[in-house]
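Tutorial handout. Part one gives the primary structure; part two gives the three-dimensional structure as tokens.
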Amino acid sequence: MATATKKEVSIAEKLDALYELQKIDSEIDRIRTVRGELPLEVQDLEDEIEGLETRIAKIQEEVKEVEVEVLDRKNATKDADLAIGKYKEQQKNVRNNREYESLSKEIEFQELEIKLHEKKSKEAKVRVAQKKELLDEAKERLNFRKEDLKTKKSELDEIIAETQKDEDGLVAASDKAKSLIEDRLVVAYSRLRQNAKNGLAVVPVERDSCGGCFNQIPPQRQLDIEMKKKVIVCEHCGRILVPSIKED
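Part two.
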């Protein structure tokens, strides 16, 4: 039944319905423009916060790993000290120079191990300090971004609260208007809106020109538009043209 009703609508009524739809959708655009870039800014902040939290967790894990390395080297140094003490005690009871020299080499090896552990521990501690500095910077940035997000969300929620009811009503009116227009025209209208920077797909003739691109319209074509006997589009921008709006 709905399809049959659409077919019975005259060209003039279709053009009127299209222009009415354009006015509704333009008002929806205006409301959404009031919100500006806030929704995108909120999304960007949420993404950045998520990234910072991931980075902080990674740095914290790296710090733990290096601190474990420092502790392992500290324990290894203690073991080496104990080994040196044991070898020195054994030197007191050697039977010949060969045994003494062998123990001396073991002591020398353990002393080199201690020096290596101390060197690597110092390097690891420097890495820990550097990572903790990065961690502090990331945490500080995270706190700033969380405050920014709180502010932006508050602004967005306030604007949405003021405009959502109007927008919902207009969206419903837009859907209703579309239901009165045949599908192929709705598809063409939607495509034109997507391609137009200002979202205008249906425009009136203003001062003998297209209300969208402002190119001059020949007099005969203006007469055809006034007659509303067929759907006429601007030969320059492709927008659907309707007669100029008469002021009361």
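Part three, for discussion. The mean pLDDT is 90. Residues 158 and 181 are 35 Å apart (CA to CA).
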